[in-house]
Amino acid sequence: MHVLSGSGRRPGRPCRYCGGKGAGSLAPVPRLSEVITALENLWPAERAESWDAVGTVVGDPDQEVRRVLIAVDPVQEIVDEAVEQDADLLITHHPLYLRGTTTVAASHFKGRVVHTLIKNDIALHVAHTNADTADPGVSDALAGALGVRVVRPLVPDPTDPAGRRGLGRICELDHPLTVRELAALAARRLPATAQGIRVAGDPEAVVRTLAVSGGSGDSLFDQVRAAGVDAFLTADLRHHPASEAVAHSPLALLDAAHWATEWPWCELAAAQLDEISDRRGWGLRVQVSRTVTDPWTAHAASVRPSTTTPAPGSDTPAESETSGAPN
Length: 327
Ligand SMILES: [Zn+2]
Description:
The chain is α/β, with parallel strands linked by helices and 327 residues long. The chain has helices at 32-42, 76-84, 109-119, 129-132, 138-146, 179-189, 221-227, 239-248, 258-280, 317-322, and strands spanning 55-58, 67-71, 89-92, 123-126, 149-156, 166-178, 198-200, 206-216, 231-235, 252-256, 285-288.
């Protein structure tokens, strides 16, 4: 195998130009700086929210990149997977440090992540709110996973004259579904999690138009109501905002696991990077992590959910209250 000595990479790495295939292959192995430039074109850092922390967290601009792993969360499990796969670059949606730090000591779990990355020559690059609002972005990937047609952004980016960038997406269904059917579809199409899909509102209401927003979406209720859609699929919905949203209008809410609503973006990002790699002849090997990093690991469904409160002292209140009633 053709190996460059003194390349500053792990021993035994193949030549930057022939990739170990021998003479005749001139595909250049890109430097991290070249790959980062391409990623910045997809998700410019200046389009991130002011509170966000995006961009390259770990990495030497001169290091070579052959293998890339894409995931939602920069947690130890994912970094260990990157090491196993011999990845040179890990791209995640969530930042490692959102609020800054004064230490990267390995005694802390985030410091351990930094140590593992550096010891294994793996760079980390984050695309968060700049990937949310991109065209295509996180909510396009979510809509694509659900098989619904994107019409426009829910909150358009005023700096985009084409009106395609922005937060969330307004979508149309080619064939109307009840809220219950839409929830079942989302449970099938999104990656499986302990939570599944929770529904607020009338399960039998018909959905023709849908707003979607990957990640926590309960700050978007005003825009969702203004859009006049039948349903809103997002994550992390809380009691009061959800209760008020359904009291205001016949809007139905579908609450998925945060991780599950953002994971489809990893596949979109991988396809985008593959396309760039093909165009430039980089020969990158881009993988998407299938490890579930949603923090919720189990879910005990109520025996038979009821719309009435349990009788005091009853062991199986929901069953007795709804005995004989359809599920
Ligand atoms: Zn998120």
